[in-house]
Give the backbone structure.
Amino acid sequence: QVQLVESGGGLVQPGGSLRLSCAASGFSFSSYTMNWYRQAPGKQRELVAARITFGPGINYADSVKGRFTISRDNAKNTVYLQMNNLKPEDTAVYYCNARRDSQHDYWGQGTQVTVSS
């Protein structure tokens, strides 16, 4: 059974940091691109960061470049999102996604991140 379990969300003040984790199981983690998406109220889900299987391939949304860092540990089947200098506009539900192709596309349940003073 495929599972993606996010953790690490919460309430943080502007300028603060959070580290999200996504623990994966039930599929061959190392062969999947791992992504973080987010969805704010009333907005479409957007790609925040993507980390391909191996090598240097990483992509970030322009809005988070220089502040967020995605990483993965294939030995632990876990992907992380380090978020620094958080802004109120980063408030959203953050989702972990594992994708190999259109038929192998899995989602976590999401974790809430709220940036507010």
Q: What stands out?
A: The two ends are 40 Å apart (CA to CA). The CA atoms of residues 16 and 92 lie 15 Å apart. The chain has a mean pLDDT of 94.
